[in-house]
Amino acid sequence: MQITCGTDIIEIERIKESIKDLGEKFLNRIYTQKEIEYCENKKGQKYQHYAARFAAKEAIFKAISKKLKDKYEIGWKDMEILNDEQGRPQVKIKGVQRENIDISISHCREYAVAMVVMFHG
C-alpha cells in the first residue's frame, strides 16, 4: 500500500478577489454546484469556506502527485468537498473510493489550510 499526502494554504483575500473579479466564471470553473450553495449559505464567512475548499483541492492535486497522475486524471470539478452531518469535511473524487482519502481543512480570518492523505492499494 502506498500513502501520499498533500497540503495547501491560501490567503482568503486572493479567493475573494478572484470571485469579485471573475464571478461566475471563476466559481463554475473551480467549484461544484453543491459547493457553491454550501459556501453561499455561510453569508459573512463565505470567502473562508470557498478558500478552504480551494486549498483542499490543491492539496488533493499534490497528494496525487506526478507519480500517480496517470492513474487519477482529474480536474477541479471532479472533486467535491462537503461536510457530513457532524460538520466534518468529506471528499468525493471521481474514480477514488471515499475510504481511501482523509481530509482536514481549517480557516481563520486571513488564511485557509487543508491536509489530505490518500491510501493507494
Describe the protein:
The structure is a single chain. The chain has a three-stranded antiparallel sheet with strand order 1-5-4. It has a two-stranded antiparallel ribbon with strand order 2-3. Strand 4 (101-107) and strand 5 (111-120) form a beta hairpin. It has a single domain (2-120), classed as Ribosomal Protein L22, Chain A, CATH 3.90.470.20. Helix 3 runs antiparallel to helix 4 (46-68). The longest helix has 23 residues, at 46-68. It has helices at 12-22, 24-30, 33-40, 46-68, and strands at 2-11, 79-83, 89-93, 101-107, 111-120. It has four helices and five strands, in the order βααααββββ. It is of the alpha+beta class.
